[in-house]
Design goal:
- It contains 14 helices and 13 strands.
- The strands form two sheets. The protein has an eleven-stranded mixed beta sheet with strand order 1-3-2-6-8-7-12-13-11-9-10, with helices on both faces. The protein has a two-stranded antiparallel sheet with strand order 4-5.
- α4 links the parallel β2 and β3.
- The longest helix is centred in the C-terminal third of the chain and has 27 residues.
Length: about 450
């Protein structure tokens, strides 16, 4: 039986919270109050939220009434989540991380979908300005800090969403991912970040950065949580019947030693479990130049999408963002077209690899979360951008690290449309990792 006196229910994962509500171990009101209490006590140090939904408790009461009358909308009814501040939620302002706000007249398509299942929007999460960056050092709404790394960035651009989940301010959160903006903060904050197949969720009502590369994705505490939020069925995967592929292009890239060590240890776990893996390569693919190609597409498309706001309200943009957008305005149509062709060639190569391997593995990032007073590395999205180029689903799950070390993420990719299969293998790999890590802890204690 769940003990409310000894356990903070905001720490529960989505599956646990859903089960607890279903068995009446606690109410949605109690769950929302627990999250709001965590926010009140600790968000002053994290700054994960830009706005809190003052109607959240009233919505939780409605959920509890539905449950008591037997008219629950779904397994998710009464679950509080955070939403990145570029996704429209009726009744809450949208800022897109800019020095302005607007009140949407209707919910984004994804919000409409989730509300129909009874999910409660707890508030809007801070983000990197206009989603064009990976630190969530926002000049208008303040820095968001990593709950797992003192004075560290939570990553971005969905840094507020990642920090909110990592700090147990909410049960799950939504982010957007253009070249890794869900998976990078997930890796930095030690949580799960899932970018579904492009188009899996409609981006209607989401302020775009790049219509070519954008996707919406959940940020959760477990793989099973991501599957539940996405309504995907996790099926048993016999890992010993798979040949997993490790992408050599990323293996050869410069990484922090803790990333190298964690990934090597993970491969050792696979060997010890008699799970086959082999190296594969994308011929001629260089992560850093490829990521720069993606950045060109973002800059051109972001300028086109935000030109009107930039002209009518330049004060809404920081000087750094204005420079980015002005650079995008000067890129020729020819260069933009050839860059898109280059990205298409990356996609073609990766899809060819998926004809041979179902799942491709790599570290999620070349580095761990770093302090805000450190120079920002330019390669944060070097390993994550490829999934956006190809439109394929990709997930970041936590790898074990030594005590007091920053979190490290493992990225897994699958072919477009294979979201359920990806979530299934990620759940199996997470179980294998956890079992191995638990066994090591037991050995140390003995």
């Amino acid at each position: 039986m769940f003990d409310k006196k000894s356990t903070a229910i905001s720490c529960l994962d989505l599956v646990e919270a859903s089960n607890g509500l279903a068995s009446c171990e606690f109410s949605s009101v109690e769950l929302v109050k627990a999250c709001l209490n965590q926010i009140e006590l600790h968000d002053i140090h994290i700054n994960a939220f830009t706005h809190i939904n003052v109607k959240a408790l009233a919505e939780a009461k409605k959920s509890d009434l539905r449950r008591s009358s037997g008219t629950t909308l779904s397994k998710l009814d009464g679950i509080p989540i955070a939403v990145k501040d570029n996704i429209d939620v009726m009744g809450l302002p949208t800022t897109n991380g800019l020095n302005m706000k607007w009140c949407p007249e209707k919910d984004a398509e994804i919000i409409k979908n989730l509300k129909s299942k009874g999910i409660i929007i707890l508030g809007k999460a801070n983000m990197h300005e206009a989603a064009l960056g990976a630190t969530t050092d926002n000049p208008h709404h303040g820095k968001t800090f990593n709950p797992k790394v003192k004075d560290g960035t939570p990553g971005g651009s969905s840094g507020g969403s990642g920090a909110a989940v990592g700090a147990d301010f909410c049960i799950a959160a939504l982010g957007t991912d253009t070249m890794g903006s869900v998976r990078v903060p997930a890796a930095y904050c030690g949580i799960v970040g899932f970018k579904p197949t492009t188009g899996f969720w409609s981006t209607g009502g989401v302020m775009p950065l790049s219509t070519t590369l954008d996707a919406i994705g959940p940020m959760t505490k477990t793989v099973e949580d991501a599957a539940l939020l996405c309504e995907q069925q996790i099926s048993p995967i016999n890992l010993k019947s798979e040949t997993l592929a490790v992408l050599g292009n990323f293996e050869d890239a410069a990484c922090e030693q803790i990333i190298v060590n964690s990934f090597l240890e993970f491969k050792n776990v696979l060997r010890e479990a008699d799970i086959n893996f082999t190296q594969c390569d994308l011929e001629g693919y260089e992560p850093t130049p490829a990521r720069r190609a993606g950045l060109i597409v973002c800059e051109v498309e972001a300028y086109a999408l935000m030109e009107g706001i930039l002209r009518s309200k330049p004060s809404a943009f920081s000087s750094d963002l204005r420079k980015f957008l002005e650079f995008g305005s000067k890129i020729s149509g020819s260069k933009y077209f050839h860059t898109l062709q280059k990205i298409q060639s990356f996609k073609t190569q990766l899809l060819d690899l998926f004809n041979e391997f179902r799942f491709i593995l790599s570290p999620t990032t070349p580095q761990t979360a770093f302090p805000f007073n450190q120079n920002v590395p330019v390669d944060q999205a070097d390993f994550t951008a490829l999934a956006n180029f190809s439109g394929c689903p990709a997930i970041s799950i936590p790898l074990p690290v030594p005590e007091h070390s920053p979190p490290v993420g493992l990225q897994i990719m699958a072919a477009p449309g294979k979201d359920a299969e990806l979530l299934s293998v990620a759940a199996s790999l997470q179980e294998l990792i956890d079992e191995n890590n638990s066994g090591k802890r037991c050995q140390l204690q003995n």
